[in-house]
Write a structure and sequence with these properties.
This protein has 324 residues and is an alpha/beta fold. Helices cover 46% and strands 15% of the residues. It is built from twelve helices and twelve strands.
Length: 324
């Protein structure tokens, strides 16, 4: 019993540090938006102007957009490899990693939306043409890098939403599974199809899919390499929202944007530690999870935002949170 209590004490201490780090990163004020490297480190996008006002060029495989006006605080990461159906290449994975790393400590980021800039496709998975040219040792290294990058996305301290307006297969679905919330068009197609290629999902699919839809059903989908549409994905809990596709082909993105706007008024520090508490708590038993919640809650008590929330409630006005 003493050992168990000591272990719980250590866990609480670790969670306090993690929650403090999340709160600190939320309170860190940058001098401006950090430039996000694109095209393997070439010229980067500046902070966005009005709504989609960025200087993106057609050849950029990952477009990073800071939205403005009523969407201020929302960042959109757009996959843009039309010639390869947004397949995950070494270069694209590298750019994703750099972009996610830049978002981690940016106070102005409140929600991240992952979408496709290519109509009819979200992400077709790994770039198999590139994979075929790799030595077996290179394959292992690439899969490890892709897994680490998707884990980095999953561990972003702010809410993340995957807008699936087209096909998401293999690594593409694993990418979506790493997001907190998934929205899809009813016509979208999704599946972990790796067993067709005599391999298994290697970027988190075997772990995140059963945690999302249950062990038995996840096994069935992976064993069969079955592809489901948006309606079935919603019925089994793979996605949170399903919408009818529109003429522009961006119905899921528009729903994701509306959802992200619901998150914007909330306290930034609270959002970060709430995500931390949920993510960490889901991996342990209830008693330990409640201890995690307690440690995370404690990080919100000394914040200026908490006092502002109470004052705003008393004065019957919208709160003006600063993430401090």
């Amino acid at each position: 019993m003493a050992a168990a209590l000591r272990g719980l004490g250590l866990l609480r201490a670790r969670l306090s540090l993690a929650a403090a780090a999340a709160a600190t990163s939320a309170a860190r004020v940058p001098t401006g938006h950090r430039a996000l490297p694109l095209r393997g480190g070439a010229a980067a996008l500046p902070s966005a102007g009005r709504n989609f006002a960025s200087q993106a060029k057609e050849e950029e495989e990952l477009r990073v957009r800071y939205l403005d006006d009523e969407h201020k605080g929302i960042v959109v990461l757009g996959l843009n490899r039309s010639h390869a159906k947004n397949a995950l290449s070494k270069n694209l994975v590298k750019m994703m990693s750099k972009a996610v790393d830049a978002l981690k400590s940016d106070k102005k980021v409140r929600t991240v939306i992952f979408r496709s800039e290519v109509p009819g496709i979200f992400c077709a998975g790994a770039d198999l043409k590139e994979r075929a040219k790799m030595h077996s040792s290179e394959v292992s290294s690439f899969v490890s890098r892709a897994r680490a990058t998707i884990n980095e996305l999953a561990n972003l301290p702010v809410p993340t939403i995957a807008a699936i307006d087209g096909t998401a297969l293999g690594g593409g679905l694993e990418l979506a599974l790493a997001c907190d919330i998934r929205v899809a068009a009813s016509s979208a197609k999704m599946g972990l199809v790796e067993t067709k290629l005599a391999i298994i999902p290697g970027a988190g699919g075997t772990q995140r899919l059963p945690r999302t839809i249950g062990v038995s059903l996840a096994k069935e989908l992976i064993f069969s390499a079955r592809i489901v549409d948006g309606e079935e994905a919603k019925s089994i809990g793979l996605i949170s929202h399903v919408v009818e596709q529109n003429e522009a082909g961006d119905a899921a993105y528009k729903r994701a944007l509306a959802l992200a706007r619901e998150f914007l008024p909330q306290g930034p520090v609270a959002m970060r530690v709430a995500k931390l508490a949920i993510n960490q708590g889901m991996e342990v038993d209830l008693v330990t999870g409640l201890a995690i919640e307690e440690a995370c809650y404690a990080q919100t008590i000394p914040t200026k935002d908490r006092i502002e929330g109470l004052l705003a409630f008393k004065e019957k006005r919208p709160p003006r949170y600063k993430g401090e």
